[in-house]
Write a structure and sequence with these properties.
The chain is of the alpha+beta class and 925 residues long. It folds into seven domains: 2-185, PAS domain (Beta-Lactamase, 2-Layer Sandwich); 203-303, Beta-Lactamase (2-Layer Sandwich), CATH 3.30.450; 306-429, PAS domain (Beta-Lactamase); 457-517 and 533-555, Beta-Lactamase; 577-679, Beta-Lactamase (2-Layer Sandwich); 684-840, Rossmann fold (3-Layer(aba) Sandwich), CATH 3.40.50.300; 851-923, Arc Repressor Mutant, subunit A. The chain contains 33 helices and 37 strands. The strands form eight sheets. It has a seven-stranded parallel β-sheet with strand order 32-31-30-33-34-29-35, sandwiched between helices.
Length: 925
């Protein structure tokens, strides 16, 4: 038996199939009222229903024990299945209102309640209903109908049928029908329809529905854009009559392509003619509709006339910059942002895409040039997300439809308000370079309700500020579940001060009837967390044009605010730093400097440095070093400090110690670099002076040296010199470690050249040697013994190439490399070539100080060590010379920079200079 229930405002009706007593099937007529059901149920096999009730009971009631096995065997299985699977509730009630059976529909609604009291389960009451249709049915032996208020405040109609029929009985079959669900669904549908009709009418974009270019419906915005007062006026005119004649073919072409199932750009820009003859530019999009099996077109459009005027002005202002773009073989274009309309292109664009005239090409939208819509959508998404695309490989098509591979880069340009005004981009034909076909990824766009698809929160409140509607994004922003915000006032989400400010904004919108753009509010989420949101609000009007509430868009800007604060702090820290900080682009052009950099350079304004290439401030001989260093840094092969000489504004030179950090985008491409530098000119000068006084040999950082000797002696002395002034040391040799430990007092690392696997062994391969020396983090002195062994293992050409590479490495990282060369193991030509690539080790000629002057320096030193500075006369008396002799020798030491004169009143005292201390250290050791 199948029942179909129809809930209508005028009553509840049944229709469907049922089984007659003779086994035949009959249909319930459509529209049959519940009161007429008794005539159908009476014709059913009541005994079979009784048997079925006993079968479904499963033994939970004592009354069922009286049912015989013969009755169970005679059960009509088809009736049982029909009642069990019926969509309406069916139950059997016995005496004392005991539930003997219920079908699956009731079990799903109330659970398994067989054996329970019906009015307690179904109505949630403690006593029978008064009057009770079930009890009346059993007492009279006649069908009774009625209603009851079921659990959950639901109105349920019931039909009670006695069996056996025609006399008082103690059992009844009861049909329960929920009468409220369909009415509620209809009310919800009406409410939803009204809400979206309101959205249609209040949209700021023009929306209309047309059939065969004849408008049949339009909202207020569409009437305003086209210049009409009423819809009746607008429906008298063809939609094409409002399109400028020169653009009508584009509309017809788009309609034909859509009918043919072709993929279309999401929108197009056309010129329209208003009712009064004025022309406007609009951005329009269309979609096909089927209403009552008839084809219609849904069109939405917005006025972009002012934007088009701005584009034309921008086009005129940039004429003077066109020459460069027109003379390169890469396509250069500018288009109007996401609309895709071209503003300007260079001749290379025409050549790449196969167009003969610029006018013909300018009619195209950039979206039409993509071979695949998916590529177009990917570019649009990246522009929306990042504001640029860089070296994007795409498949585009020429005029005739011929596909080709292209490399595209583009950047979004914004106005002073941060709004995108246009895109600038370049397109290069890379078909020849791309030999392999690319696999295409197709993705389908799923259309969602606009309010649920946006990430921003959408809300509606009444005039009192109580939430009446909102999307899921708003609940996520505020931290509430789906229905918790309904009925809540916005004031409960913020403190009193913010609530007053927000009220003033709502009041201003209400009185002025003008929407307000985004402003910042601080709200409290459900868990108490404070968040910053940016909200814009506008009025909601009823059908009579009276304001009934407000709608708005809210965006969580907490992270943006935090980033802005961090950026401000970082900017302040950079500005106040005493170290020089520069930011450059990937080509080395200076983008930003701090005040310390400007002071050091000697400039008055940042423009003295901004826009210039950083290499231009280095002496020419350091350009190569800087380029190699930057390449290594970009390849993550170097993380230490670098030293460069820099030419200041006054043409003087200083030495800077720099740390360079590469800036990369999300794809890992180099965007620029941050350079932190400090002036070490004085330190370098002191180091050079110290080396000159402490070292026997003239060795400069960043160079490689060699000396011809059968055994390493002079090279060891030179190596010791470097260790003495602070260099880290590394010896690479075939000889035993003890030979060097016996001669060298300072600590040094040692690697044995051999083809063995050991931690102190270095394989005599060129790559291993380069890798080891390249891994040295600080300025180091490296002694390489037995060059002949390397030549034997690798050949002279490869070994000489290693020397050249190490020379560049030493220059870049301020190492000093020393080669011990046995001339008897090499050919004369090869020896000359090696000596030419390296520098010779030569001793330093030191200044000779006579003993009688050293005696004065020792005497001053003794006094200085105990905290005293002797006078001229005291120094002469201590040494035992006359005053004139003492004065003469002191003046000599003053002139040569070994003594410093200190005045205290009329007394002249003396102390040693740093220069004297260095000399004293050499002479007295």
């Amino acid at each position: 038996m199948k029942f179909y229930i129809h809930a209508k405002k005028e009553g509840i009706q049944l229709s469907g199939d049922f089984c007659l007593k003779d086994g035949s099937m009959s249909r319930i007529p459509e529209g049959l009222d519940m009161k007429d059901v008794f005539s159908i149920l009476r014709s059913m096999d009541m005994m079979a229903l009784e048997d079925m009730a006993a079968r479904g009971h499963r033994g939970s009631s004592s009354e069922s024990s009286c049912i015989s096995s013969t009755m169970i065997e005679d059960l009509h299985e088809s009736i049982f299945r029909s009642l069990e699977n019926a969509e309406i509730g069916i139950t059997v009630i016995g005496k004392n209102n005991c539930i003997l059976y219920q079908n699956d529909a009731l079990r799903k609604d109330f659970g398994d309640v067989t054996g329970c009291i019906c009015y307690e389960v179904y109505a949630g009451a403690h006593e029978p209903c008064s009057p009770c249709p079930v009890n009346d049915c059993m007492e009279k032996g006649a069908i009774e109908t009625g209603y009851m208020l079921a659990k959950g405040q639901r109105n349920m109609g019931l039909i009670s049928v006695p069996f056996p029929a025609g006399k008082p009985t103690d059992r009844a079959l009861v049909v329960l029908i929920d009468s409220g669900s369909r009415l509620k669904a209809e009310d919800a549908a009406l409410e939803s329809e009204e809400k979206y009709r309101c959205l249609f009418e209040s949209s700021i974009e023009g929306v209309c529905v047309a059939r065969d270019y004849r408008i049949v419906s339009a909202n207020r915005a569409a009437l305003d854009i086209l210049g009409y007062e009423t819809l009746d006026e607008l429906t008298q005119v063809s939609l094409l009559d409002h399109v400028a004649p020169e653009h009508r073919s584009r509309i017809r072409d788009r309609t034909m392509r859509r009918r043919n199932g072709e993929a279309l750009p999401p929108s197009l820009d056309i010129q329209i003619i208003c009712k009064d003859g004025r022309r406007k530019y609009i951005e329009a999009s269309t979609a096909a509709l089927i209403i009552s099996d008839e084809p219609y077109t849904l069109a939405s459009f917005r006025d972009i006339t002012e934007h088009a005027k701005m584009e034309r002005a921008l086009r005129r202002s940039e004429e003077k910059y066109r020459t460069l773009a027109e003379n390169i073989d890469v396509g250069v274009y500018r288009n109007a942002g996401f609309s895709g309309r071209f503003i300007e292109v260079n001749p290379a664009m025409l050549s790449i895409f196969g167009y003969e005239t610029k006018e013909e090409f300018m009619e195209k939208n950039i979206m039409e040039l993509f071979q695949h819509v998916s590529d177009c959508m990917r570019v649009i998404c990246q522009m929306e997300k990042h504001g640029y695309v860089r070296n994007e490989e795409l498949k585009m098509k020429k005029k005739g439809g011929t596909p080709f591979f292209a490399l595209m880069s583009a950047v979004a340009v914004t106005d002073s308000n941060g709004v995108v005004s246009h895109f600038d981009g370049i397109i290069e034909d890379i078909t020849e370079r791309k030999k392999a076909e690319q696999e295409l990824r197709k993705s389908e766009e799923k259309y969602r309700n606009i309010l649920e698809s946006i990430e921003d929160g959408y809300f509606e409140v009444d005039l009192a500020g109580t939430f009446t509607f909102y999307n899921d994004s708003l609940t996520r922003i505020l931290g509430y579940s789906g229905t918790e915000l309904l009925g809540m006032n916005y004031g409960g989400l913020m403190d009193e001060k913010t609530a007053r400010m927000v009220f003033e904004r709502f009041h201003r919108v209400f009185t002025r009837r003008v929407p307000e753009k985004a402003s910042d509010w601080e709200i409290h989420r459900k868990n108490g967390e404070k968040r910053s949101i940016e909200a814009s609000i506008s009025l909601i009007y009823d059908s009579e044009g009276e304001p009934v509430g407000f709608r708005g868009i809210a965006r969580d800007v907490t992270e943006r605010k935090r980033a802005e604060r961090e950026l401000t702090l970082l900017s302040t820290a950079v500005k106040m730093s005493n170290e020089c900080i520069l930011i450059t682009d990937a080509e080395g052009k200076i983008l930003e400097v701090n005040e310390a950099t400007l002071r050091l350079y000697g400039g008055l304004v940042k423009e003295d440095l901004l826009g210039k290439n950083s290499l231009g401030f280095l002496p020419p001989e350091d350009h190569r070093k800087a380029q190699v260093a930057f390449n290594e840094i970009m390849g993550n092969r170097f993380h230490g400090t670098l030293e460069f000489d820099v030419i200041l504004k006054n043409e003087s030179r200083i030495t800077l110690e720099t740390n360079i950090t590469v800036l990369r985008d999300d794809q890992g491409a180099v965007r620029g670099a941050i350079i932190i530098a400090r002036d070490i000119t004085d330190r370098k000068k002191a180091e050079r002076n110290m080396k000159k006084r402490l070292m026997k040999y003239d060795l400069e950082e960043g160079n490689i040296y060699s000396f011809q000797e059968e055994t390493p002696e002079i090279t060891i002395e030179a190596f010791k010199d470097l260790l003495k002034v602070g260099y880290a040391g590394l010896v690479v040799s075939r000889g035993p470690r003890t030979r060097f430990e016996n001669s060298i007092e300072n600590e040094f690392d040692y690697l044995w050249l051999a083809e063995r696997d050991h931690e102190i062994v270095l394989a005599p391969t060129l790559e291993d040697i380069k890798r080891k020396i390249g891994s040295l983090k600080t300025a180091s002195a490296v002694l390489i013994d037995r060059v002949d062994y390397l030549i034997f293992k690798n050949g002279f050409e490869k070994t000489f190439s290693l020397v050249c590479d190490l020379r560049e490495m030493a220059y870049l990282h301020n190492h000093v490399l020393i080669f011990s060369v046995d001339p008897s193991t090499m050919a004369e030509k090869e020896l000359r070539q090696l000596m030419k690539e390296t520098m010779k080790i030569v001793p330093i000629e030191k200044e000779d100080i006579p003993e009688f002057l050293l005696e004065f320096l020792r005497a001053v030193r003794r006094e200085n060590l105990v905290g005293r500075n002797p006078s001229y006369s005291e120094l002469g008396e201590n040494i035992g010379v006359s005053k004139p002799t003492a004065r003469k020798r002191i003046r000599t030491l003053l002139n040569r920079g070994y003594l410093r004169e200190l005045r205290s009143g009329r007394r002249k005292a003396l102390e040693l200079t740093e220069k004297a201390k260095i000399v004293m250290g050499i002479s007295l050791t």
